[in-house]
Structure formats: structure tokens, C-alpha cells
Task: structure prediction
Amino acid sequence: MSAKGLSLINLEKVYPNRYTGDVHAVDNISMEIQPGEFVTLLGPSGCGKTTTLRMIAGFEKPTGGDIRLGGESIRHLTPDRRDTAMVFQTYALFPNLNVYDNIAYGLKIKKLSRQEIREKVTGILSLTGLEGLESRHTNELSGGQQQRVALARALVMEPGVLLFDEPLSNLDAKLRIQMRTEIRKIQRTVGITAVYVTHDQAEAMSMSDRIVILKDGKIAQTGSPKEVYYHPASEFSANFIGTANTLHGTVKNQENGVLSVSVLGRELNGIPCEREFRQGNDCTLIIRPEACRVQEKGLFEAKVTLSTFMGAYQLYELDIDGCCFTVHENNPKTKRIYDPGETAYLDMDIADIHVI
Amino acid sequence: MFKADRYRLRDPLLSLVIVSVLALLVLFILMPLLSILWGSFVSRDTGAISLDTYLKVFSDKNFRRTFGNTLWLGTVVGILSTVIGFLFAYTRQCIKSPFKKLYGMIEILPIISPPFVLAFSAITLLGRRGLITYKLLGIRNFSIYGFWGLVVVQTMTFFPIAAMTLDGLLENFDVSMEEAARNLGASRFRVFRTVQIPMLASGLANVFLLSFIESATDFSNPTILGGSYTTLATQIYVQAIGNYNQQAGTAIAAILLLVTVGVFVLQKAILDRRSYVTLTGKASRVREMIDDPKLMIPANALCLFISFWVLLFYVFLVLSSFFKTWGANYTLVLKNYEYVLNYSMKPVKDTLLIAMLAAPMGGVLAMVIAFLVVRKRFLGRQLMEYVSMLGMAVPGTVFGLGYILTFNTPPLVLTNTIWILVICLVMTRLPVGVRSAMAALRQIDPSIEEAASDLGARTARVFTSITLPLIRPAFYTGLVFSFIKSMTAISAVIFLVSANYNLLTVRVMQHVDKGQFSYAAALSTLLMLIVFAVVGLMNWCLNHLGRSSRGQINLFSNKEGL
Result:
């Protein structure tokens, strides 16, 4: 297999702008991607994720830094000379070619023999579930099928790294979930290195070995889906991945990695924390809504301001001394449901609190 | 290592193509125009640079009259073409009518016929011994020659282009805007006044200026019908070729060039200033046609009246090619065709050969230029765009004279060869081709080309395997269009024909010069027959042979291109 490692070294893209000052679309990004790894670049629009991807593919020229694929710099190569293959957001299928010829396009440029091309295309067609559609025109395909052709066309090149530019954003919700599972499965089977750009956190969580959260052209956090979800490095990360409640408190003391914090007039003891704090420091507590309960007794007294049945959970919004707090009470079927205006207690396990 | 990187960055073929295209444009568009400007400043005898020629020209009473004539004629024809063009466009797009096919045909006719055919019929029908003026109405001293004759013929020739442009604009308006205005309580007239007219304002101005340029640069009609009413475009030829006064011809050419470039810049400024037209594709819904008889009847009556005259002129062009003696004996005979087929086969063959060379060369060049300008970033990109568009503003006679000045002397001597004709036709038709190719390219998602490049295709391969097939309809349209225009061109090439190579259109003018109108009419009819046949043949081939080519070429689907 030809999977390669990819390194971005102090990568930078500056768009000069006389009026507002230079725009740092990508600002000094460095990362190492292992061969066979699935890395997602996640962030709001304008965070530089697509620019980064397009620099890897060669469509944008970096203004600084280097890109290495399999240890060799590819920064000065034109896109056609790079061992990368991209799945485009709009699929970018060639409307003048049928499915087979779309997929065979790059192989023909590689000057493979007819026999080899046929074998490879047939293999990829069955891998992506496109058998029997070879002679269809691209406008005779459904959205999901077009998506598969775009994937097959990139995969068949067996590139050092496979690049995805928000490939699922044009599909409907159900198909999106189905395709993301499928893409991940194929990527695992083939063992190819993949860089995936999206702004959809569910996609990022479900597919990636590692998520890179970008903000304003800089890396906000890197980590496995679990790490970034349970141990967000900042309020931005916490809010971008999933929903998060934040409470501001003051550190009482820290012993053996266990923290005591005073928050909303109460003292919480035994919070696990690896970061070093000093007594009197300000700190932020991050609590996921599904880690909380609304019940008759608990840590904080609260007023229910919103109570909505969502099926899988009951959505509450609570007011605790002017602080707004969101709770997802799972599987509410047999639980006591509080109505807006009622007073209830918010409770949580101390171990579920993350301190930053 | 760094050097090696730099080396790999380059796409040598791409650089080569860019440099060659720029060289072609500079050599065959800029140089001839510069030599006109240069020639008008430099005295032939002393070699000194001065404004003498201009002073001499402007102090000449005849020139000043010619200058005024050109501007006045352009203005009147511009206004009339805009008004009639708008009437046609509005009737086609907004008013209920059973004759829309006919109006569409009227809009297309002048585009596929030589620019001078209506002048012949004007003489046949309205001349001193015209069938209508003399025979029917018995008017003795009626003269079609001069200002009013030119106004009639030029308006009939140029209003269809105005109509087609406005047609395209109206068609692309989002109807929901008009519906919103109606919904808010506006009367139909109020919608017209407050929504449609403001949105069309710049389009109307644009069409006026276009018609003005067409009229000011028209060579053939003033030659045939002008009489003592002289215009700049014809005076260039008369001075430079007729009177062997090349310097005077050059000075007039420079002045006409400045006028048209000025108008062109003005037109571009108007178009750039604002664009209400949402170019997001087709209008969302079909416009409901006005069926109020108070509007429907007069609008249709006017359009039918004008269409009748246009058709009558075409019918009489064909008929007059069979007249035994022009203006005296209207018996229909074949002797004109016998003569023409005996003595004019050489120009027919030359014209076909030259058009068949020029059309594909121009088509490919236009595609390449559009691709480079739209998709690539390089030094000289803007120069390439502007120079290739320059032809739009350059009168044909100026171009022709410039070619003679530039390519009559070493280092590059092309006069008397077939190539000077081919190249001149390619370069004068370039703007239309480039513009429609650019419009077609902008419709294509760039990521399709990026995908090809990502899969390992070099620029040339991307162009040939993806871009070209995708803009193939535009390419074929451009091909047919530039073939037609090469067959019917006159104003530039009349300077460049030689004993070795003559063209049909020029031959027609030579007959006109000798007063042999019957032969001229016969040749013109033959020319139009050839054009129809070739267009029909090409359409048939594309429909029957290219099974995979989605959509036959619709010659006139690309209205912006015209």
C-alpha cells in the first residue's frame, strides 16, 4: 500500500490586503499525520481549513512553511505532479465522461495498460458499490452515487494522501450518515492516509482518528475525538464540539491532581485535573449537558426556564443564579418531568467535570 | 535542491503558449493599430513627427463635413435601432403574439447575410427608377442616395442586433421582481416604467452605442448608397486606395479609431457601473404574456410592418438577381448567374478556402485565450484580455489599412498572400469568439478542472480532455459564426485582396463600382446560399454524427456572444 505520512511545517497563507491589513488565512500551522491516519480539519467557516487542504493539493501556494509527503517536500510541485487525490465538495465529475471514464481518467494519464486500468476500475467499482453503473452519464446518477464516483475516482489513484473537501455537505441527512460510515470503512480497508475538511462536528467525531480544531488560521486543539470532547483545551473547542456548559469559579486548593473549586456559592471537591492551579486562580468548569441530571435533590438549586421533549432526551434550560445551564436528561420516558417555572435541583458526577 | 524545486514548478508548454499568444496579439492587432497612429504623426517626406497631417485634415472643409456626417448618421441610426430593437425585444418577451417565430427570424437574418444586401433592394425598390417610387407611385425626382437612404438601410441592418441583445436581457430578468411590483399594487405601465426600464437602462445605452459604432464603421452601405454624403469609414478607403494619399487615409483612420475607441470605453464604463441583471441562470419562472388588445394590436402591427419591409428587401434582392436589365427590363432571366458562374468562380473558391482556414484557427485561438484569461494567472493576462477585445472597437477599414502599412514592408511581408486575409479575418472576429468562450467557461465549476489536475493532468491535458469538450457547444457555435462572418466580411479585407486572392464580397463591390447591380445581386444571392448551405450542413453533421454531443449547436443561443 502506498499510504504516506504528511507533514505540515509552519505552513502559512497570507492574503495581502491594502485596506484592512494582511489576512492570515492559515497562520503558522504545523502537524504530523501518520501513514494510514484519518485526520479531520474542523472549524467554523473562515478558519483556514479549506485553504490548508487546497495548499496540500497544490491549488493554493503557501506564502510560508513547507509541506512534506512521505518525507519529501511537495511545496513547489504543481497539483498534477503531487501524489494527492481530492474528493471535491461539488464532486467535480467530468460531465463529458461516463462513470467508467471518470474513474479511469487519472489512470490513463499514468499511462497504465488497458488491462490494468480495467482491473483497477473494476476493483474500485465493487469497493464503492457502483457495479453496473459504468456506462452511466454523470447526470444520470443520484447524489449519493455521484459522491461514490468522486470517491472512487480519487481512491483508484492510490494516492499518498486522500483529501476530502466537505464531501458530504450536498447530501441529505440520512445519506450523509450512511456515507460517512462507508467512507471510514473504505479508508480503513485500504489503509490510506486521509485529510478530511468539515464544519460538521458529528462527521468529525464519527470518522476521525484525530481531530484538528482550527480557529482564525491557527490550531486550537488536536486530539482523538474522545480527547477533544472530554478534555477541550478552551471554551471555543468545548463549544465547537458538542454543547457545553461553562461555569466560572475560583480554585480553593489542589492536591495530587484533585481540585477543590468554589463556584456559584458552593464548594466542589475532588475534581480530577492534570493542569496546575494555584489557590485563588480563576478557572472554568466544562460540563456536558448529558452528564447532568435534573431531580429533586442535588448540587445546585435551579429554576426551569425551558423543558422540551426531544425523543431521545428531555431538553432543559435552567437558571442558576443568573447562569444559564443546558441539560439533556436521557431516556426521559419513566422520569419525572419538570415544567418551566418549577424549581428543581441540578446534579452531576464530579468526575464528569473538566477544568480549564 | 531549491533550484530543482523551481524547475519542477514550471509548466514549460503553458509558458510557451502564453508567450506565443501574446506575440500573435501584439504582432497582428497592436502593431497595425500603432502603425496607423505612428503614420498619422510622421511626415512621409521629412520623417519629422508633427501634428501637420491632423491640422491639414481638420482645416479641410470636406473632412469636417465628413466627420460631422459620420457622427450625425451614427446618432440617428443608433437611436432608431435602439427604439425598434426594443420594440421587437419587448414584443417577443412580454407581449402575446402569434408571430414570435417570424420576429426571431428577422433578428437573425442580417447576422447571416452580407452587410450590403439591403442596399441593393433599396435601390431596386426605392431608387430613381425604383419599383415602388417610380413605377408604383410615379415619383420622378426621388433620390434614395444620401442621408435618409443610409438611415433606412443601416437601421434595417443593425436594429436586429440591438433587438437580440435586449431580448437576451429581458429573458434573463427575474420575473418575480415584476410580479412583486404588481403584487404591491403597481399598474402594468408602472411596472414598465419603474422596474423594467430602470433595469434595462444601461442595456439600452449599450445597444445605442453598439449601433452607433456599427453605423460609424459601416463601409459597404455608404459606398453604395452614400452618394455625396461621405463618411469617415469610406473616406479612409477613398483617400488611401482611390487617391493614393496614404497619409490622409491614415489620419482619417486614426481619427475614426479614436472616436470608436472612445465610444467603446464609454460603453464599457456604462456596463461596468452597475448590473442589475442577475446572471444566476434562467429566470425562475415564465413571464405571463400581456394579452391586453390595446397593447397587443399596435405592438404586433408595428413589428409586422417592419418585418414586412425587411422580408420584402430580401425577396427583391433575390428577384433582382434575375432581372434582365436593372432598372429597365424586369423580365426574369438566368443570364446574370451564367455570367457570375463563368467569371467569378475563383473568388468563390478563394472565399471558401479562406473562410475554412480562418474559422477553425480563430475558434481555437479564441478558446485558448479565454481559457488562459479566465483560469490562469500570469504576467500579461490583462494585456491579453484587452488586446484580444480591442477588435471590437476597431473599424474594419482601419484594420485593413493598418495591415497594409505593417505587412507591406520587411521584416514581415504578407501582402498579396492568402495569409494576410486569413490572419486579418481571425483577428477581427477574435473578440466575439473570446467573449462567448469566456462566458461558457465561467459557467463551468473550476473544481472540475482542478479535479483533472489533481489526478495528474498537466495544463494542456486539462484543456484538451476536460475544458474543450465541456465548452464544445460554444466552440461549434463560434466556429459556425466565424465561418459566416469570414464569408461576409468586407470592410477590412477590401484593402487586402490581390490579384492572387480575391473575395466574393469584394467582387460584389467591384461590380457595384462598375454599376453592374444585377451581377452584384446574383453574387450576393449565391453567397447567402453558400452560407445557408454550410450552416445547414454543419448542423446536420452535428445532429447525426455526434451522438454524444448533447444539444445541437444553437447558433444564436449565446446572445451575449453576439
